[in-house]
Amino acid sequence: MNENLIQHYPVVIVGGGQAGLSTSYHLRQQGIDHVVFEKNKAMHSWETQRWDNFCLVTPNWQCELPGHPYAGPDPDGFMKKDEILSYLKGFRAAVEPPIREGVSVRRVAPQPQGGFHVSTTSGEVTADAVVVASGGYHEPIVPRMAERLPADIVQIHSAQYRNADQLPAGDVLVVGSGQSGAQIAEDLHLAGRKVHLAVGNAPRCARFYRGRDVVSWLADMSYYEMSVDEHPLREGVRDNTNHYVTGRDGGRDIDLRKFALEGMELYGVLRDYDGAELIFETNLTQALDGADRTYNGINAAIDHHILENRIDAPPASVYEPVWAPPTERPRLDLASSGIAAIVWCIGFRPDFRWLDVPVFNGAGHPQHRRGVTQREGVYFIGLPWLHTWGSGRFGSVGRDAAYIVDHIAGHMAARTGQATQGSAA
């Protein structure tokens, strides 16, 4: 292969979501030539991996993509799926990225002379720097025990769920109570379906407290400015499950205990299937209590902030459980349960096998500091808690991109300087 015929880009961005296009925006601001490779379409996952009634769980005013802040009529509301897609379409139009859609990156490897060789489905290119903007949610997780379930049970992952009507008549088992699981369980419940929910250890928070959205209070308390280095858990916070809450119908709490009062069946973590019965951990009480403890703890921190700053606000309150499991149910006979479908809401695993560069730890996770790896020229953007809470969302991904692009510009200036010195010598 004649390397002289291979097209060269100073920067290759892998991924055309909000993280990749935020990086493109800042590269354009600094006049740095680049290309964005996106294996599907820009913002693909927002259109194809969200259910019909999906909406943001953070208020619209927190949508601050670079050069394209939210400017709609409802800053305190929560954009629905079609509004999100419209917002992102406007962002793409504003950025005008040099994007090549339908192009997958197969391999990125270092070159002996410096820089990187990038193999794609449309050919080979080289780059001085590579920005990994493909996120960390690549492969839907479905446990191997799913293979042993009866063939007439319809099984889908949360990424495939659209609405209650796509599932056959009968009860639905939702496995997992993180943001997606709790909201999909609610969506099915509101549609009149009988829901069985296997509850995990996800925490929850209030939607509104003492007269304001909890997000607004936490923003005032600088919670969203806290870096991963400042967080008590340090890098461990990246493994945390997000709090469940919803922006649906103007925003409200998700209270699984209330759902139980209304007929939803709650269980502990689903552990196995023995050929006849589903087997659950007896940790439901512990999980519900833990979620409520987090809920009340966040509110207590807001109480302290209000008191310390002498803010006039409605009185404080403490959540009191409206329901408790009468007994733990470790087993459920599948044949007699009425369950006709299962929605797996237990997350995704990353897949960075195409990145043939030693920037990963023993667990296969990227090692970086604010997106900058120890390998010069390799960067990550858009991962949860890359730097702050907002790193994987519309809130702070633009600031993360600006930081990385500044680093890229410095890296290129240093290389140019070294080349100039070498020529002079």
Automatic annotation (TrEMBL):
Transmembrane segments: none annotated. GO terms for molecular function: flavin adenine dinucleotide binding; monooxygenase activity. It comes from the Bacteria. Keywords: Oxidoreductase. Signal peptide: none annotated. The keyword Oxidoreductase applies. It holds the Pfam family Pyr_redox_3. The keyword Oxidoreductase applies. InterPro entries: Auxin_biosynth/cation_transpt (IPR050982), CHP04046_FMN-dependent (IPR024000), FAD/NAD-bd_sf (IPR036188). This is MSMEG_0569 family flavin-dependent oxidoreductase. It comes from Ancylobacter pratisalsi.
